[in-house]
Amino acid sequence: MNIVYRISSTIMRHFFSVIYRTTWYGLENIPNDGPLIVACNHVSFFDPPLIGCSAHRDFSYLARETLMGNPISAWLLPRLNVVGVDREGGKDAKAVRHVLKSLKAGRAVVIFPEGTRSHDGTLQSAKAGIGLLACRSGVPVLPVRVFGAFNAFSRHHKLPSLRGRIKVVYGRPLQPSDFDPGKKATDRYQIAIDRIMEAIARQEIPVDSEV
User: What is the CATH topology of the domain spanning 3-202?
Assistant: First the structure.
């Protein structure tokens, strides 16, 4: 058990519950073990901890290598299962290798298919490279959608707003046959990621949920 991760998750869960009255739906859809890609929309700086802090298993994350640039983050982030990737340097192959290695080891890896935070809170186009990862790994993909976090701490905020309500919806896992059209398909990886994004878009807050 990763003690630093568990302690941080508990702190963040209480923070989101108290400040933003956050509700997490569909936690029962998270497999207890085995390799898993967790694919989520990206609207806020809060998205990574929001996704992981109420899960009953540890998640792994990718982040810009520049975030490791000071001693505190260089010590803390690896202990939060965060691996730095030099996207600006064109070393995406490192991210691919890391994700495939983590999945082979049976871990759950969080990926944001859109690649960057949304400018307006709506779903953006996804990167075909994530489709490659999903098809090549052949593991289930868990679609997740975050609601309300854009208004709390979007890319346009210098500091988070302390007002608002956040909700996170975990969908049912997609099996490879649900998103992978097969090796012979033209634009295989684009089709795969489009299907994954469609699954994310289908996630909605339950109609009988608390307002």
Answer: Glycerol-3-phosphate (1)-acyltransferase (3.40.1130)
